[in-house]
Design goal:
Pfam families: Aldedh. Belongs to the aldehyde dehydrogenase family. GO terms for molecular function: oxidoreductase activity, acting on the aldehyde or oxo group of donors, NAD or NADP as acceptor. It comes from candidate division WOR-3 bacterium JGI_Cruoil_03_44_89. The strands form 6 sheets. This protein has a 7-stranded mixed β-sheet, sandwiched between helices. It has a 5-stranded parallel β-sheet with strand order 9-8-7-10-11, with helices on both faces. Strands 5-6-21 form a 3-stranded antiparallel β-sheet. It is globular. 51% of the residues are buried. The chain has 2 domains: 5-249 and 457-477, Aldehyde Dehydrogenase, Chain A, domain 1, CATH 3.40.605.10; 253-437, Aldehyde Dehydrogenase, Chain A, domain 2 (3-Layer(aba) Sandwich). It has 494 residues and is an alpha/beta fold. The chain has helices at residues 40-59, 62-78, 80-91, 95-115, 154-165, 179-192, 206-215, 228-241, 263-275, 292-306, 327-343, 378-381, 397-405, 420-429, 467-470, and strands at 5-7, 10-12, 19-24, 27-36, 123-124, 131-139, 142-146, 169-173, 199-201, 219-225, 244-248, 253-257, 285-291, 346-349, 368-371, 388-394, 409-410, 412-416, 434-437, 453-454, 472-480. The chain is built from 15 helices and 21 strands. Helix content is 39%, strand content 22%. The structure holds 2-aminohexanedioic acid. Residues 104, 150-151, 281-283, 442-444 line the site of 2-aminohexanedioic acid (UN1).
């Protein structure tokens, strides 16, 4: 099957006619399809279309755009199973999870439907009589959206829906590892009533399509989710043209388990957090910080369960963990296992590829646990993006918090304890954008701010009401109805 770009309301090939082939990571012999390998000229056309479509789209009453988002949510609901299967085939995670991923898109669309009738500004007292001060939020213009493959429906929806609802038009470049889901999303947005030119889809590589978006003068805001390395590059490029930019980057998320915790609950949490999505979430649990008193007992429980995780093609409902996304990612995970061993950490389970039966055709890797990891080891500091968990032993809650904060990242965090005082004090001290108490590091809901501190981003928050700050400008309006010149700061004395 050959798929197309969508520019100015028309489906078409890249101008160069070049394509790339996307394959199933669970079975590299299976082709998902051929997609346009676009270039700068395609991006230019998309930007032009988006610019032309802007005045009409932004002039619509917001509740009208809200209705379209409601319709989009309804269509995602109707096609939930189809989309989940598309996702599993193209990026590997198990069906149970891809259904959740689509649901996150649905929730985001319905949230937008409500937000369309709420989009509050402020009215603020003036220092002068007979003067009204208020604010409005307005679209920025053309938004460039660059998305990853690990949440092929949810993350594009996190960006597309608020960008469009706010009245922006869009140039959307999805990951080359998730082109099919993105194509379906754009088809459904169109079916929901988004007019031609308002959303433009350009498939291709970051180094060409991505770069062209970053340097295009008509793009006013860029929203990106991906690695720190690429994030730095994007911030630099956007600095040159003073584009607004929102970056959602990596994580090295820790789960603390104190000795008074419900250990069974903490065990379920870490298994889900570390091995869900094969560890390929920015929110994945990659460090487990255990209080000394329960270290041995908990580790034994964890290894027993990790060894039983059912690995295989995510389309098989019995499976709990699918493949890694690519050969490159598999090589990276293997490399980190060698690094961990050479640093002196103890490989407690896994650490090798999984090639049972049909799995030999894909990029499968066993759930891997390193014990006796010290916070200064690379496997405790660098984002691996795979099913590799580093277990750190600490004496008490103070050392646990020092360990969890000893990271250049700060996205998600978790603490398991039955002591409410300890939990709430830890919450104050943990340096992360998201903290879960008695829950794993994954599981963010679409109606709350999502993002992190330190190298995880540049201070923006997606999700909830805060994502609308990314896609809007504030206009401050003063209305003087006194009928005379009133000088602020000067005519204020009685
Ligand atoms: C990501 O890892 O890039 O909280 C997003 C979660 C999901 C979103 C993760 N709802 O794990």
């Amino acid at each position: 099957m050959v798929y197309k770009n969508y520019i100015s309301g028309r489906w078409g090939s890249a101008l160069s006619e070049e394509t790339f082939v996307k394959r199933n990571p669970a079975n590299k012999e299976e082709r998902i399809g051929e997609f346009p390998l676009s270039g700068t000229r395609d991006v230019n056309l998309a930007c032009q279309a988006a610019k032309e479509a802007l005045p009409k789209w932004r002039a619509l009453p917001m509740p009208t755009r809200g209705e379209i988002m409601k319709q989009f949510g309804d269509l995602l609901t109707e096609h939930k199973e189809e989309l989940a299967r598309i996702e599993t085939r193209e990026m590997g995670k198990v069906l149970n999870e891809t259904r959740g991923d689509v649901q996150e898109g649905i929730d985001t669309a319905y949230y937008a439907f409500g937000e369309a009738r709420r989009f509050f500004g402020h009215t603020v007292p003036s220092e002068l009589p007979d003067k009204l001060c208020l604010t409005f939020r307005r679209p920025i213009g053309v938004a460039g959206l660059i998305t990853p493959w690990n949440f092929p429906v949810a993350i594009p929806c996190w960006k597309l829906v608020p960008a469009l609802l706010s009245g922006n038009t869009v140039v959307f470049k999805p990951s080359r590892e998730a082109p099919h889901s993105s194509t379906r999303i754009v088809e459904l947005l169109t079916e929901a009533g988004v007019p031609g030119g308002v959303v433009n889809l350009v498939h291709g590589a970051g180094t060409t399509v991505g770069e062209a978006i970053l340097s295009h003068p008509d793009i006013g805001v860029v929203s990106f989710t991906g690695s720190v390395e690429t994030g730095r590059r994007i911030a630099e490029a956007c600095g040159k043209t003073l584009k607004r930019v929102s970056l959602e980057l990596g994580g090295k998320n820790g789960q603390i388990v104190l000795s008074d915790a419900n250990l069974d609950l903490a065990l379920e949490g870490v298994l889900w957090g570390a091995f869900g999505t094969t560890g390929q979430r920015c929110t994945a649990t990659s460090r487990l910080i255990l209080e000394e008193k329960i270290y041995d007992e908990f580790l034994t429980m964890l290894i027993a369960r990790a060894e039983k995780v059912k690995i295989g093609n995510g389309l098989n409902e019995d499976m709990e963990m699918g493949p890694l996304i690519s050969e490159k990612q598999l090589e990276k995970v293997k490399k980190y296992v060698e690094i961990g061993k050479s640093e002196g950490a103890k490989l407690a389970c896994g650490g090798e590829v999984y090639t049972e039966g049909e799995c030999a055709k894909g990029y499968f890797f066993k759930p891997t646990i390193f014990a006796e990891v010290k916070p200064d080891m690379r496997i405790a500091r660098e984002e691996i993006f795979g099913p590799v968990l580093s277990v750190i032993r600490v004496r008490d809650v103070d050392e646990a918090i020092r360990a969890i904060n000893d990271s250049s990242y700060g996205l998600s965090s978790s603490i398991y304890t039955r002591d409410i005082n300890k939990a709430l004090k830890a919450r104050q001290r943990i340096e992360a954008g998201i903290t879960y108490i008695n829950g794993p590091t994954i599981g963010a809901e679409c109606n709350l701010p999502f993002g992190g501190v330190k190298n995880t981003g540049n201070g923006h928050r997606e999700g909830g009401w805060t994502v609308y700050e990314i896609f809007t400008e504030i206009q401050t309006v003063y209305i003087d109805y006194s009928g005379k010149l009133q000088k602020a700061q000067i005519d204020t004395e009685q």
